[in-house]
Design a protein that fits this description.
elongated, alpha+beta
Length: 413
């Protein structure tokens, strides 16, 4: 018999087959409940992490990691400023842009859109739109040719394809004033030279790309209204962007991707937190079962407890016996849950293929397979929470066992 004695006795109680069927059944239910709760938590949080990363990547496919703008005014010396940014830590690329609200029409359809002027040569450094072209090429946007590239859903709404023309109406145009001081909208015909699809409705149904020089002509400006930046590490982009902006003279406002898309990621964080709390209830139910099991074991083992006390075991030793039993159930259940959860979370796409499941129909969703991103911090947090809860569940039954009086327990034996 190894030491300490309370741990030895607690292990014997846990592994012995002398319990009643009902107590043994509740013990196994408790163990499986902890295991399933932990496994489901790991899988669900991994999938939510994957969906969050997928959403972030798609949002940033056209929205750069950071932007520098002059509050809607033109930046005539943008080439010089981009040269000054060369050498900034982990800066991958910088490109100018000019956004304006526009109305696109082709009889009988009409749709509002964001008209973005870009430099095709520099745009590939900060976005992946060139890789998302369904038809045409980004390089087709030559200055002075009045060519436009539409998002797939926007092209569908306008019922146009490559080779068709659309009428672009922008407010003010070249600031042509009327006799009463009003503004006359600018109308211009553009030739559809390409169609892109990012996979986000915000981009695919409301964004149109034209050459930067054509956008400057429409707005009557002598330069872009902003510069977009891309860094090697998207998570460090806010810090890196501030370091890059410090290389420029004051006058440009800096915004990073966490500010531009704050609402999206706040919603994901809240949903992830609420989902974790809800699923933790599965573990909580199993923990209550552990407490109930130990209460019944204490009642069943009152005679054994009394004998141990008469042999010299202290109340603290009795406490350790039953805490050992409850903690063992929690540890085994947590270990099984972590193993099962990691096995599923790390192989979600393969399981879909092996079982021939199509949970996310590619005809309905842009994402054809369920993404999964298992983070060690989440796994450790889930395992620790499960262990703490199972430990807390053993305290009350163990205290009741420690209060057992030998004389009372052995009176009728």
């Amino acid at each position: 018999m190894f030491q300490p004695v309370p741990v030895f006795v607690g292990l014997r109680y846990s592994l012995a087959r002398e319990h009643s069927f009902f107590v043994s059944f509740i013990t196994w239910v408790s163990l499986l409940g902890v295991a399933l709760g932990v496994a489901i938590l790991i899988v669900v949080l991994s999938v939510m992490n994957g969906l969050g990363s997928e959403l972030r990547d798609r949002l940033l496919s056209l929205s750069a990691h950071a932007t520098l703008n002059a509050g809607g005014a033109a930046i005539p010396d943008w080439r010089q400023r981009i040269q000054q940014l060369d050498g900034a830590p982990e800066l991958v690329g910088a490109a100018p842009y000019l956004d304006t609200d526009a109305m696109l029409s082709r009889q009988p359809a009409m749709s509002g859109a964001i008209l973005r002027g870009i430099d095709p040569r520099l745009e590939t450094q900060v976005s992946t739109v060139g890789d998302s072209m369904r038809e045409g090429k980004l390089s087709d946007l030559e200055p002075g040719q009045n060519r436009i590239i539409l998002g797939r859903m926007l092209a569908y709404q306008l019922e146009v394809g490559v080779g068709d023309t659309v009428t672009v109406m922008t407010p003010g145009g070249e600031a042509a004033g009327t006799a009463h001081g009003g503004m006359v909208p600018s109308l211009r015909e553009f030739y559809v030279s390409g169609i892109f699809e990012i996979g986000l409705q915000e981009h695919d149904s409301a964004l149109a790309l034209i050459n930067l020089e054509d956008a400057e002509t429409l707005r009557g400006l002598s330069g872009p209204t902003g510069i977009r930046l891309k860094f090697a590490d998207v998570l460090q982009a806010p810090v890196l962007a501030r370091a890059a902006a410090a290389r420029l003279k004051p006058g440009l406002a800096l915004r990073d991707w966490t500010q531009e898309n704050e609402a999206y990621f706040r919603a994901i964080r809240i949903e992830k937190t609420m989902m974790a709390l809800i699923l933790m209830l599965i573990v909580a139910v199993a923990v209550f079962n552990i407490a109930a099991t130990l209460v019944m074991v204490v009642s069943d083992k009152r005679t054994d407890i009394a004998i141990l006390r008469t042999l010299g075991m202290s109340p603290r030793g009795v406490l350790a016996v039953f805490m050992t039993q409850g903690v063992l159930i929690g540890w085994i259940g947590t270990a099984i849950g972590v193993t099962l959860g990691l096995a599923v979370a790390l192989h979600v796409p393969y399981l879909e293929q092996a079982l021939d499941l199509h949970i996310m129909d590619p005809d309905v969703y842009y994402i054809s397979t369920i993404p999964s991103e298992t983070r060690p911090g989440d796994v450790i947090s889930i395992a620790l929470c499960a262990l703490v809860l199972t430990f807390v569940a053993t305290i009350y039954p163990a205290l009741q066992a420690a209060k057992t009086q030998p004389a009372e327990a052995l009176r009728y034996e």
